[in-house]
Amino acid sequence: MTSENSPTLEHTLSPLSACVKEMQEKGYTTDFKVENDLLRGFNSETTYQPEQVKIVNFFRFEGTSDPDDMTILYVIETDDEQKGTLVDAFGTYANQDLDAFLQRVPEINKKNTNTNVTPEDLMRNPSPDEDEPKVFS
């Protein structure tokens, strides 16, 4: 199910921070993290199970010369209407706890891609090709 209101980038952005800023301007202001198999905001005690979370979009970033710059930004909504983002590395440096959590999230929309590539696919195979989501260098 793709939401008509899924946030997309209005223009191509380079730095991750610019993309986070744009998502914040669209109302995605909570910084999320995965801890003890649960999602929670950095400044919140409220936790979420995977079935309480919807990934409404994600954006992949690659540094042109530094593999440490390989990151993915998840745009998240919760069942109690919290909206925010979560940043992780992908490939070798991906957070395994986050990967395990994402595999249990039942709804992952990919509005910025025309493929069936999932975040788990990106984490296992970070090499870019035309069938993957947009990559921002």
Task: Give a structural overview.
The chain is globular. Strands 1, 2, 3, 4, 5, 6, 7 and 8 form an eight-stranded mixed β-sheet that branches. It has a single domain (16-112), classed as PH-domain like. The chain is 18% helix and 29% strand. The longest helix has 10 residues, at 16-25. With 137 residues, the protein is α/β, with parallel strands linked by helices. It is built from three helices and eight strands; from the N terminus they run αββββββαβαβ. The protein has helices at residues 16-25, 96-103, 119-124; strands at 30-35, 38-41, 47-48, 53-61, 71-78, 83-89, 107-108, 135-136.
Question: Brief overview, please?
Answer:
With 137 residues, this protein is of the alpha/beta class. The chain has helices at residues 16-25, 96-103, 119-124, and strands at residues 30-35, 38-41, 47-48, 53-61, 71-78, 83-89, 107-108, 135-136.
Structural class: alpha/beta
CATH topology name, in short, is PH-domain like
**Helix-strand pattern:** HEEEEEEHEHE
What is the level 1 CATH name?
Answer: Mainly Beta
> Into which percentage range does the β-strand content fall?
25-35%
